[in-house]
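FW: tagging you since you asked about this chain on Friday. Here's the raw sequence from the shared folder, copied in full. Didn't touch anything.
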Amino acid sequence: DLPPDLAADMYWWVSAALRQYLLKSIAASALDIDDLVAEATASAIPAGAQDSSIDDAALALVARLEARGELSAVSLVRFLRSGRINAFMAGLSRHARIGIPAVRKILFEETGESLAILCKASAWPRSHFGEAFLLSRKYFEQGVVPTEVLDATLRFFDELTDDTARSMLRY
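HL: got it, structure written out here
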């Protein structure tokens, strides 16, 4: 009897292990395997397994912005700037088409590389990614980002191709 969000995470962990096994065991395209594994694991996740920690108002706001075509890097960074963390997480989840638990993990990841991958895959400009990275560290860690960490994270973002980021995000 696992909570739905933990069960969903576990399905994705298993799918990652399965993908690695398949890539090592058979000669198949990584993208084909990604599609098959994503389809299989998504079908096993219980319907309605929503993250209850994100308030309904944030979800409704994000849905309205998306319906009007206004859900963008600009609006998401604006949420962070104003301290609207739930709206930012809900918006990032919707914008990137990944679950809120995955967004939460990405935001707490130490190096910022996962956020760089997500932002690059979502076609964010470098400036918006940089601002989101710095602001996320303000809210989700202990404040000031050392210059060398910021430089390394921005360099990672710059060197990452759009196609590679999209492929990594799908995984």
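FW: The chain is about 75% helix and 0% strand.
HL: agreed, and The first helix runs from residue 4 to 25.
FW: great, closing this out.
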